[in-house]
Amino acid sequence: MQNTQDTQNEAIVNIYGADWCGDCKRAKAALERFGVSYAWHDIEHEDGAEARAIEISGQKHIPVVLFSDETFLVEPSANDLKTKLTELGVPIKD
């Protein structure tokens, strides 16, 4: 699990995905660009991560991005992520 964890006032975001997944790479890059911490769960190498992603979303599409308020997005765009983080009151670098 990669962690760019947790500075004050930032929601913890959990991303469930795989290293080969382009949408996963884009979601991680967007969070890094926004300056938001996240925990990476590789569904191919972390025990239980794939089952947890399916449990959260009810589907097998990745990435599954789980937010601190227990809501999630599947295959989100950078704009989707930015909108949700803003809704949560997370400070975002532009």
From TrEMBL:
One of its GO terms (biological process) is cell redox homeostasis. It comes from Bifidobacterium bombi DSM 19703. Residues 14-70 form the Glutaredoxin domain. Pfam families: Glutaredoxin. It comes from the Bacteria. This is Glutaredoxin. One of its GO terms (molecular function) is electron transfer activity. InterPro entries: Glutaredoxin, Grx-like_ET, Thioredoxin-like_sf.
